[in-house]
Amino acid sequence: MPEAMTSTGRLPRVSAVMATRNRAHLLPRAIDSVLSQSLADLELVVVSDASTDDTAAVLQTYTENDPRVRPVLLDVPHGAPGARNAGIAAARGEFTALLDDDAEWLPGKLDAQLEAIASADRACVGYCDFVRVGLDGSIARFGSPAAAGQDAWRVLLSRTFIDTSCLVVRTNVLHSIGGFDDKLPRLQDWDLAIRLAREVRFAYVPTVLVRSYESAGSISSSPDRLIAASHRMIGKLEATGATAADIAALHRALAHALMTADAFAEGRRLLVRALKLDRFSPAGAAMLISSAFGAGLYRRINSARLTIMSRNAAG
Q: How far, in Å, CA of 3 to CA of 10, rounded?
């Protein structure tokens, strides 16, 4: 694929990378949010993962009017992580900014994140707050300053709060860690953030710069995929020689993800394992108690907690 130059004849500073499959109706919102950024020194690599709908036609309308848009059309499906990796491989920018097709960047996102990375000591990754718009129109805000420091890795072992569309990463760093794990059936963004945090520092912008929209096509109905992903993530962490406390933290976080999905029993099993690894953990004991009364109550407690957190963040 030829190198995409900016209007100044240089390679772009930022490569926005988006993967999509058969969701042509979502593309204009996402693409327009990239092309309208105040930072013009960019390219947009859109990977069509063997789409059979109007995706190619939609992309053609953009390439005819803006040379910054670079389609990558895959002949066979690679899956979301594989398609993203194809986009990362095609990226020519110093930084790669990831974007899901069901999300949009708010104005000034890239400028704010690049400034934060430049201002932070040795930071190679930028992230920000985001809001998720539910199918019912509900809005929840997410983000955390905790991962901006040197302990980002341990923070991310205990919970996930970084959406794929929030990440701006030095491209060479993405290459060095191997991009997304294409063997993970779920949780690829969380896994990527954990591996990045183990290697480099994060810079945080405490502002909502991304709006993510829940859509029917983005919701997995298979608890088996979530269970398989959880066990793979645990195995990968164990292979690094992490401490029992760190492994227990990931067990608890994944247990929570499972118990709030349709895999409550497996989540409880992971929680019991976490307590065996770190028996004096107050967080583990609290989770075990709150889950003792069944999935329904646990999920209602979690829903109330998220509502309070979102209101506090918005305030």
A: 10
State the residue range of the domain holding 87.
14-218
Residue 9 lies in a domain: no
With 0-12 / 13-18 / 19 or more C-beta atoms within 10 angstroms meaning exposed / middle / buried, residue 296 is exposed
Whole-prediction pTM value? 0.91
Residues 256 and 276: their CA atoms lie apart, in Å, by: 16
Share of the chain above pLDDT 90, in %: 82
Q: What is the pLDDT of residue 1?
A: 41
Distances (CA, A) of 258 to 60, 292, 304: 41, 15, 18
d(CA 148, CA 155): 10
Q: Is residue 131 part of a domain?
A: yes
Q: Please give the helix or strand (H or E) that residue 184 lies within, else none.
A: none
Structure tokens at 311: 């209101």
**What pLDDT does residue 130 have?**
97
User: What would the two tokens of residue 40 be?
Assistant: 């013009």
The shares of helix, strand and coil residues in the chain, as percent rounded to the nearest 5, are 50, 20, 30
Residue 309 has pLDDT above 70, yes or no: no
- On whether residue 118 sits in a domain, the answer given is yes
Q: Looking at the structure, do residues 27 and 67 belong to the same domain, yes or no?
A: yes
Q: What radius of gyration do the chain's Cα atoms show?
A: 20
